[in-house]
Amino acid sequence: MSQIEQELFQRLSDAVVDMDEDEAVAAANEVVERGIDAYRAIELGLSAGMERAGQLFDEEEYFIPELLMCSDAMYAGMDVLKPHLRSDGVSEKHKVVIGVVEGDTHDIGKNLVKIMLETSGFDVTDLGRDIPPARFVETAKEIGANIIALSTLMTTTMEGMGAVVRQLSEEGIRDRFKVIVGGGPISQGFADRIGADGYAVNAADAIRLARSLVAPAEAAA
Amino acid sequence: MVTIHFLPDDKRATVPKGSTILEAARTAGVTIDSPCNGAVVCGKCAVTLASEDLERVVEKGAHQLPAGERARGQVLACAAEVYGNITVVVDDAPSLRSFKIASHGEAAVVDLAPHIVKEYLSDLGVTRVLGGGALLTEEEGDTAGESYGVVVDIGTTTLVVALVDLVSGTQLATASALNPQSRHAQDVLSRIKMGSEGRGLAELRRGVIGEINALIDQVAGASGVSRSRIYEVIFSGNTCMLHLAAGVDPAPLGRYPYTSALTCAAWLPAQATGIDIAHGGLVYLPPIISGYIGADITAGLQAVRLHENKETVLFVDIGTNGEMALCRDGKIWATSTAAGPAFEGMNIRFGMRAGEGAIERCSVHPDGSLEIRTIAGTEAVGICGSGLMDIVAELVAHGVVGKNGKFVKPDSAGIPEKLAERLVERDGKPAFLLTDKVWLTQKDVRQVQLAKGAIRAGVEFLLHEASVPVAELQQVLIAGSFGYHLTAESLTTIGLLPAETSGRIGFVGNTAKSGGEAFLLNAVSREEMRDLVEQVQVVELANCKDFDKVFVEALSF
C-alpha cells in the first residue's frame, strides 16, 4: 500500500470515528481523484472506522447517538465511492435476513444492527417488524442468506425465535443458515435453549458474531 | 434426580438433573426474588452455595455476577443447573411491607353520590343495599349508617388500599405492600408471559388477591369496620394488572396490536374475584384507554379533571411504562412508552427497590462534596429509582457526566477535585463512587438515558400530534408514587422533560388511588370517564414516523 493510500484510508477511518461527514466526503473525493481503488477505500477506510466505532461502543465510550453519527459519516463517504466500485473486483457479500419477530413492533435495536451489518460489508435484507417465522425462512431460502438475524424487545414474543429454528430443522435445512438472536429479554442461555447459533448483547457484538459465523465458510471456500 | 436442600426454610426438592435452582425452589415452595422471571437478565436472584457444592452446578448463559461474588459461592438461581445434591442458602427476602410507598394523591372534590346506596325500610325492619339501583343484599335492622368502599391501586410493583366511608365521603385508612407478583416477574411483559399460561395466571391472581384481602383486613381492622359492611371495591391499575386480578388471560396485550381482552367500565361479583367483602358486593373495573394506557391513567384524568382544565396540560405517570396524556381545549391525546425497568433499579449495578439503605437523594455541595440520604438513614447498600435520577442529574449539572452521557476524565477542566477523585475504575470500567461500597457505572448512566429518552420521545410525539409548541405547555403534572419522590430539577436536568417546562411542573402523587376514590364516591364520574376515553386520541408510537430519530435525540442530556 502506498503512503498516500495509507494516509487516505486513515483519514476515512478517522472521519467515521470522529463523526465528521464533511471530512468523510472530502477524503472519499480525494480517493476518487487519485484513482485509488474504491473497494479497498471502503474496506480499509470506512469499514475499518466503523469497526473502531463499534469497539468504542463496547468500551462504553460511545453510545447509540455516536454510533449513528459514525454511520452517517460512513454512508456519506460510501455515496461518493459507490459509483466508482469496479463490479469485477468486488467479492460476493455475505447475506443476512434481519427482522423483528412476530407480535413485536419495537425495531430500534434491529435498525441499529442492520446499519452496523451494512457498514461492515454485509448485504442485508430487512423484513421489518412483526414478522412471522415462515417469512424469515422463505426469504432466507430465496436470497440464499448466510445468516438469519432475529430481534425482539418483548419477553412475550421471544418464543417466535425458537419457531424459526424449528421450522428450519423441520424443513431439513437447519445447517444452511446461521441463526443469531438479540434484544432486551434475550440472553445466551435463551439462545442455547432454542438452538440458535449465537447471541449478541449489542450491535457491535452482533458484527463480531456475524463475522465469526461466516469466517469458517470462507476458509473452506 | 437430584435433591436440593433450601435453607433457612429447611425445605427439599427432588428434581431432574439439569433443572435450575429457581425451578427447584418453586417446586419446594421456596420464594427466591426473581424479578425477570428467570430470563437471566436482571442478576437479582443470587443464592449462596457451599464451595464444595459449586462444582455440582453449571451456570448456563453469560452470568452476570462479578468474579468476587462467585468466589464467595454465589450463583444466579435462574442460571444454575443442578447436577448433584446440594444445599442452597436463600437470603431473607425483605418483608413485602417494608418498602417506601407513597399513597398520597391529589384529587378534585366530587359530589357525594356513590354507586352504593343503603336504605332502611322501617316497616320491614331491614336495610336494603343497592348498587346503581339494583338490589345487592338485605341486612337485618338499620345499618344505613355503615356503608364502606375500598379502592385498590394495583401497581406493577406496589399495592395501595384505601378504605372509604361512603356516608361521609372520608378516607378512613390506607395500607400498602409490594405486589407479590413482582417476586415471580418484575415487569409487565414477564407478567403477561407468565399469565398467558393457565397455571401462571392462577398463581398470579391468587397472589395479588390474597395480598389485597390482607390489606383490606388491615384497613378494616384499623378503622373498626366489619368486612361485611364493605360493598364495593374499585380496581385501579394498568390494563395488565386488571387482567391478572380479574383472572383474564393477558396474552393479547403481549403481541401487536396490544389489545385488551377485558370488559372495562363494568362490575364483577366480588365473590367471583375472590375478594372477601360483603355478600353480594361488587368489584368495579374502571374504563381503560388502551392496552397500555389503563385504569390508573383514567383514574388520574378523573383526579386532576384534566379535560376541564382551561390550560394546556401534560399529565405523565413515570414508571416502567411511561403513560401520558396531553390536554388542550378539552381534547386529549394519550400514549405510552416502554421506559424499561431502570427506574425500578433493574439493570442497574447497585439498583434496588425503595427499601432500607437505598440512596434516595443525592446532592453536590458547591465545594464538590456529596450529600447522600438513604431510606431509614442507614448505611448505603444500593440505589433506588429516585436516587438514581438525582445522582445522574447532579453529575450532569456538575459536568461529571457530559451531554453525551459519558463520564468525563477525572482530570477534565472545571470538575471540583472532590468529585474528580470519585471517578474511578471498577471491574475495568469507569465508575463514580458514591460510597466505598456503592457506585454508579457508565452502563447505569446508559440505562437512565434509555429510560428517560423513551419518555421524552413520548412527550415530543404528544406535543407534535396535538400541535402544541413546548412554550405553550402551561403545566406538567407528574403522577404516580415513583414520580412523587422526584424533583422538578432532576427531571429537566436529565431532559426527561423539556427544559422549557421548568417552573411549571407539579407533583400530584398517586392519582390512580385518589381518582379511584372519586369513582367510588361519585357514580356519575364513572360514566363521564367512560365517555371521555372514547374520545381520547391514542398515539401509537410504534407507528409514528421518525420515532427512531426522536428517541435517539432524546438520549442526550
Short descriptors:
heterodimer, A: 221 residues, alpha/beta, Methyltransferase, Methionine Synthase (B12-binding Domains), Chain A, domain 1, Rossmann fold, 2 domains, 57% helix, B: 557 residues, Ubiquitin-like (UB roll), Nucleotidyltransferase, domain 5, 6-stranded mixed β-sheet, 28 strands, 2Fe-2S_ferredoxin-type (chain B)
Helix content of chain A: 55-70%
In the CATH hierarchy, the third-tier topology of the largest domain in chain A is known as Rossmann fold
- The total beta strand count of chain A reads 5
Poorly predicted runs of 5 or more residues of chain A:
none
Biggest interface, CB < 8 A? A-B, 31 and 40 residues
What oligomeric assembly is this protein in?
A: heterodimer
Q: Poorly predicted ranges of chain B (pLDDT <50, ≥5 residues)?
A: none
Please write the string of helix (H) and strand (E) elements of chain A.
HHHHEHEHEHEHEH
Q: Number of folding domains of chain B?
A: 4
Strand content of chain A: 5-15%
Going by CATH, the architecture of the largest domain in chain A would be 3-Layer(aba) Sandwich
Largest beta sheet: strand ordering of chain B: 13-12-11-14-16-15
Helix content class of chain B: 25-40%
N-to-C CA distance of chain A: 26 Å
Describe the protein's architecture and organization.
Chain B: It comes from Geomonas anaerohicana. Chain B: This is DUF4445 domain-containing protein. Chain B: InterPro entries: 2Fe-2S_ferredoxin-like_sf, 2Fe-2S_ferredoxin-type, Beta-grasp_dom_sf, Corrinoid_activation_enz, Raco-like_middle, Raco-like_middle_sf, RACo_C. The complex is a heterodimer of chains A (221) and B (557). Chain A is 57% helix and 10% strand. Chain A has 221 residues and is an alpha/beta fold. Chain A folds into 2 domains: 3-89, Methionine synthase domain (Methyltransferase, Methionine Synthase (B12-binding Domains), Chain A, domain 1, Orthogonal Bundle), CATH 1.10.1240; 95-220, Rossmann fold (3-Layer(aba) Sandwich). In chain A, strands 2-1-3-4-5 form a 5-stranded parallel beta sheet, sandwiched between helices. In chain A, helix 1 (3-17) packs antiparallel against helix 2, helix 4 (64-81) packs across helix 5 (108-119) and helix 5 (108-119) packs across helix 9 (203-220). Chain A is elongated. Chain B has 557 residues and is an alpha/beta fold. Chain B folds into 4 domains: 2-89, Beta-grasp domain (Ubiquitin-like (UB roll)), CATH 3.10.20; 116-297, Nucleotidyltransferase, domain 5 (2-Layer Sandwich); 303-340 and 451-554, Nucleotidyltransferase, domain 5, CATH 3.30.420.40; 342-447, no CATH class. Chain B contains 14 helices and 28 strands. In chain B, strand 18 (321-328) and strand 19 form a beta hairpin. Chain B is globular and about 85 Å long. The interface between A and B is large, with 31 and 40 residues.
